[in-house]
Write a structure and sequence with these properties.
Layout lengths: L1 H8 L1 H15 L10 H28 L3 H17 L12 H9 L1 H14 L2
Helix pairs in contact: 2-3, 3-4, 3-6
């Protein structure tokens, strides 16, 4: 219950930080459609990714009793999932292990929303 209450208290930060980030980054993407609809779609994807990462962190923290172990292994898991999400390299021609990591990675689905939006223009 502690993690759920903590997560609810962080909702303001989880929405404010992506909104600020998208305000700064969005004009420099030079998309064909710079309208409000496209901006709010990017904002929605950023909020989804923020909630996704925070929820993964809280779930990871609930597994461990020791805070230090949770932090260290949580950073390692996030780095591991970030490699498999396909934002740095294409996982289309990767080996089966990387394809499995990409399938299991919670980050791959939120990153995919960004790429579909950018490439659909």
């Amino acid at each position: 219950m502690y993690y759920f209450g903590n997560w609810i208290c962080k909702i303001l930060f989880l929405t404010f930080y992506p909104a600020l980030l998208i305000v700064i980054v969005f004009p420099f993407l030079e998309l064909k459609d710079q309208g409000n609809k496209n901006y709010f779609l990017f904002l929605r994807h950023a909020i989804i990714q923020s909630i996704n990462a925070t929820t993964l962190g809280h779930a990871w923290g609930a597994i461990f009793d020791n805070e230090t172990n949770a932090l260290v292994t949580g950073f390692a898991a996030m780095s591991f999932f970030a490699v498999g999400c396909g934002s740095l390299v294409s996982t289309k021609n990767a080996n089966n292990f990387i394809k499995f990591v990409s399938f299991c990675s919670p980050m791959s689905y939120s990153i995919e929303l960004y790429f579909k939006r950018i490439l659909s223009e």
